[in-house]
Write a structure and sequence with these properties.
The radius of gyration is 20 Å and the shape is flat. The chain folds into three domains: about 140 residues, 2-Layer Sandwich (Nucleotidyltransferase, domain 5), CATH 3.30.420; about 90 residues, ATPase, nucleotide binding domain (Nucleotidyltransferase, domain 5), CATH 3.30.420; about 70 residues, ATPase, substrate binding domain, subdomain 4 (Actin, Chain A, domain 4). It has about 325 residues and is of the alpha+beta class. The protein is built from eleven helices and 21 strands. The strands form six sheets. The protein has a six-stranded mixed β-sheet with strand order 3-2-1-9-10-21, with helices on both faces. It has a five-stranded mixed β-sheet with strand order 13-12-11-19-20, sandwiched between helices.
Length: about 325
Amino acid sequence: MEISIDLGTENLLAAAGGKVLLREPCLLARSLSSRAVLATGEAAAQMLGRVDEDIEVIQPVVAGRLADPEVAALLIKRLLSQVLDWKSRLWPRLFVAMSDTSDSFACQSLFQALRPARCVAVPRALAAARGAGLPVGEPRGQALVDVGAGSTEVSILSMHQVIATRSLQVAGQALDEAVRLHCLHAHELELSLQTAREVKHRLGFAVPERAQGSFSPWGRELVSGLPRQVELNALEISQALQEPLGRIARGIQQALEHVPAGLAADLVDQGLVLTGEGARLKGLCDHLQQTLELPFRIADQPSTCAVLGALQAKSSASLVLAS
């Protein structure tokens, strides 16, 4: 059996046979005293900020980089065991979408911890491009902007190769933090990052002129320390997002400045494709087009491009880096 894995900062996805098997928060909770695993995925996410000091909730991927390979391997095994029948004792072959900027030692440590499963690393940019339906085998440039939770990766591809890639340390979590800080300063209301993320999804627009709607989240009032609910409007939240969005746009521009002249014309003709969960921010495509004066489009199902494309990429040996 062959299974693809997308190990992200925020979510872990697995797919087989062209279908997504699981999508869970990339979190694991365990006891500090006994080291016993207490929860994984969504169950671990529910523990954030709600448990005593003996329980730690671990995020094995931080800012798009594999920070704890052993915890990541344990998390993958635990979550896969929920959707697979292990009675056959035939371990699947895992195709793991890995960033080109990933530390090779951390990747090897992950694959060793996943044994006896056989593992193959697939360049994430190629996996996402295949999942987005880009013709990466043609002799022309294709540009991919993968907006994740911890990082944004800008990649140029041609002839089954990643010609250039640049990782930006600003993405979905930076937008969440911008919402949290706005509520803290403008309303003296402290929100959890989970609540800030919900506010972003409900009220965030990359183009403030299109912002509409309101939402009243609960948070902790700074002065009294008591729970309080404040009505927020889409315009103020969208304006709060402009600073990190500006950093994303500038990072994309700087990455494109190093593209060979022959490929630059291809990018104008083909446009840049947005993938990743962060691409779902309302109006992001239009915002980048207006800012950079280049054509952008969002892939169908942007959040699953990498996990579905990893298995497609394995069909060509030149696309795959063996573990």
